[in-house]
Amino acid sequence: MCLDALFDIWRALEIRVLCDGHGQVARYTEIPQKIRGAMGHALRAGASDQAVAGQQCPFQPPCTYDLFHNARASVTGGLEMPKPFVIQTDPAGEDLLVTLRLFGEACDRAHEFGAGLVAGLRAGLEAGGGRRLRPRVLAMEQVALPVPVRRPMNTPVVLNFLTPVMQSRAKKPIFDPVSLLTGLGNRITGMARWHGVVLELDAAELKADAARIGGLAQHEGQDDHWHRGGRFSAAKVPRKQTGRCGWLRYPAPGDLIGRLLQLGVQTHIGAKCAAGPGRYMLGLEADPG
């Protein structure tokens, strides 16, 4: 399937949960990670023994925990399929808005995902020192997202990162505007699998376009550091995480990379996106002519 045809079948649905108070914690990068962990524990209660062990689930249909947690068949270059969701947190006045965005096949499990999210929040998030953050759920709704608009990308574009974008090479954090784009191609290819199709991207064209515009990219920002564990965890040895904040400007990307960036607004970009990193707004600069 070509990229334009993927737009025609693209599905994204949001589960939005409003929690009483705690709006101030929305800005902490590790909070979506904690929510993901809490939701996973809740979904595990209804999982098969095989899924809990990381094996193929024998249930028909497979349990939601299997889809949420376990690795699926690899895509480009032996990479495993991306998880079919991302988690976002935002302040809503003094309250906390938690958004779980589902893609493709996962949209059919919205009820189970929503129940797991609420149960996980109710059970609480580790806050260190034996304490738990227990947001009280006020409301929940499901909203189907419109398909991103396919618009010409013939002028420079700017990615404004709302959460740090993560990349690594040889297990060390990096920030590389070129591989950020080729990685997005892999990510969207994986998301296409969750829509039941195989996306046919011209790998040579993507690599050449990424090198061309990535080599001329401009960036302003800085590294952000947080711990997976630590401030909101009782973990004794928290793991350091690093991501890049700020903005990134590419020259006119053209149709292929432009389409990927338009979908990437919904899927996020970079590594470990399911737990919140790589969220961005996409701006199109005006044509000076």
Automatic annotation (TrEMBL):
InterPro entries: CRISPR-assoc_Cas6_C. Residues 159-280 form the CRISPR-associated protein Cas6 C-terminal domain. This is Uncharacterized conserved protein.
